[in-house]
Write a structure and sequence with these properties.
alpha/beta, five-stranded parallel sheet, two-stranded antiparallel sheet, Response regulator, Bact_response_regulator, Sig_transdc_resp-reg_receiver, phosphoprotein
Length: 122
């Protein structure tokens, strides 16, 4: 799992929550460039947690890369469901602030859907 979040305290809190839930973190990326680098370099990323506003820049290039690599992603946004307006992407959106349990439940749902699609295409 890749966590793309520019606020380091928030990123570390997400990382702690996901590790406590038994999930593996490939890396933390505070910028679009770092996220794209990790997406290109990492051997296995099963899902991305994506803040759509990264230091004043849109996270859309990361969403595009996830889409191109068939990696599901969960959007974190202070702007609610409007985070993906004007794009062709469909992804669950978790509005900030959110609780740790809601984050874990949302990621579990994304992973279940991904695993369900993988097993139905075999």
């Amino acid at each position: 799992m890749l966590v793309v979040e520019d606020e380091m305290l928030v990123a570390m809190s997400i990382e702690d929550t996901l590790l406590a839930a038994g999930m593996q973190i490939v890396g933390l990326a505070p910028t679009v460039d770092r996220a794209l680098q990790l997406l290109n370099d990492a051997t296995k990323i099963d899902v991305v947690v994506l803040d759509m506003n990264l230091q004043g820049h849109s996270g859309l290039p990361v969403a595009d890369a996830c889409y191109q690599q068939s990696i599901p992603f969960l959007v974190l946004s202070g702007y609610g469901t409007s985070a993906l307006l004007g794009t062709s992407h469909t992804a669950p959106v978790l509005s900030k602030p959110f609780s740790n349990s809601v984050l874990v439940e949302a990621l579990d749902a994304v992973l279940e859907q991904k695993n369900g699609e993988a097993s139905s295409s075999v």
